[in-house]
Input
Amino acid sequence: MALYVIGYDVHNQRNKSSIAGTLRKLGAVCPLESFWLLNSGNTTAQLRDELQTSIEYNDSLVIVELKAGAHWASRNAGEVGLDWMKRNLSP
Output
């Protein structure tokens, strides 16, 4: 399993709900609006291919693999996201 951070910009509010629903189905958590964390057995390309079906051609999507032990800091992030980072990224 790999750890990912996923971010997106959508221009149609309907698409925002669609991609958020897809991410939730994959088990992702959302500490900030349009910023998601995911533990998955899929590759970045596989995730991109699955998520791009939930957005339109002019929307943007970025997926970056994280490594356990990565340094992080936050301010006013959602508790579920903070718990995920403590569990998956802290040394």
